[in-house]
Amino acid sequence: MTPLFHPQSLCICKGKAAYNDLLPYLHIVRSRFWHRGFTYCKFVKVAKNVKLPMNATGCECKGICNDPTTCACALRNGSDFPYVSRDGGRLVEAKDVVFECGPECGCGPGCVNRTSQRGLRYRLEVFRTAKKGWAVRSWDFIPSGAPVCEYTGILARAEDMDSVLENNYIFEIDCLQTIKGLGGRERRSQDGDIPANLLDKYHDQCSESAPEFCIDAGSTGNIARFINHCCEPNLFVQCVLSTHNDLRLARVMLFAADNIPPLQELTYDYGYVLDSVLDSDGKIKQMPCYCGASVCRKRLF
Ligand SMILES: C[S@@+](CC[C@H](N)C(=O)[O-])C[C@H]1O[C@@H](n2cnc3c(N)ncnc32)[C@H](O)[C@@H]1O
């Protein structure tokens, strides 16, 4: 068998996930010409009306960060490093937010506190399912806590997304929801995890009602856009801050929630609150869930 995706490819998608869209890509992979006419984006693109915050001040460690009592980034994480270096870096536990080292830090690229910044490490394959369209699985065993991929696309203002109902690839950056563990996303530890002053800032930054920003992978994205929802998922969403401290614009990372054997479909909980999606007439819109889990809620929304 030939993998559908080159092990190191990060972004191969253009347009909707229709079969015809993928066909040229398959050709590209097989013939190893995998740059022709396709967006290859490692990072999130940014809409013109979104201004990225200034870089946050970094730590003053040299080489790699290893002293949590002096590393400024470890202090932001509650005086500890969120990762252990085993298997190339694994998240110890799901956190409200992970503060990674960034461009202003003194440490180098080998620092464990940059674990989510190293790109794909597993051979991920896009495959067709009977009822859910395209889906993603790994050819490799993925250990619990390992970073699987980032959700990339165009970083945009949520209010500018006028085709939300037709666009299945919008990820709202809703870290307050993630922090509170609302709506079925991976249950987070309580607010005590992060320093009170930072938490106050998060509450100021994140509106209680609607998320201000989203990642639109409808036209540009990476493999994360093909990962389906499951009511009993094997991945979880983790907000990560690595260049700035604005939680509204956090990076969205997917981590393994468990040890995942090869070829098991990769899924995360989309976290919809039931009856929260309305159609253009204001009527509640419903979508059946085909995840097949014993605890399935039977609806995505
Ligand atoms: C981000 S896309 C995931 C990739 C998608 N399957 C594809 O073919 O491009 C989200 C869409 O996939 C489908 N989907 C994802 N998880 C599903 C599930 N558990 N049950 C039914 N449909 C699902 C829904 O159409 C949803 O709007």
Automatic annotation (TrEMBL):
Record carries keyword Methyltransferase: yes
Cellular component GO terms, alphabetical: chromosome; nucleus
Boundaries of every Pre-SET domain copy: 57-119
Keyword Nucleotide-binding found: no
Top-level taxon: Eukaryota
GO molecular function, one term: histone methyltransferase activity
Record-annotated SET domain positions: 122-271
Domain Post-SET: 285-301
SMART domains: PostSET (SM00508), PreSET (SM00468), SET (SM00317)
InterPro entries named in the record: H3K9_HMTase_SUVAR3-9, Post-SET_dom, Pre-SET_dom, SET_dom, SET_dom_sf
UniProt entry keywords in alphabetical sequence: Chromosome, Methyltransferase, S-adenosyl-L-methionine, Transferase
Subcellular location(s) per record: Chromosome
UniProt GO BP: methylation
PANTHER family, sorted: HISTONE-LYSINE N-METHYLTRANSFERASE SETMAR, HISTONE-LYSINE N-METHYLTRANSFERASE, H3 LYSINE-9 SPECIFIC SUVH4
Protein name: Uncharacterized protein
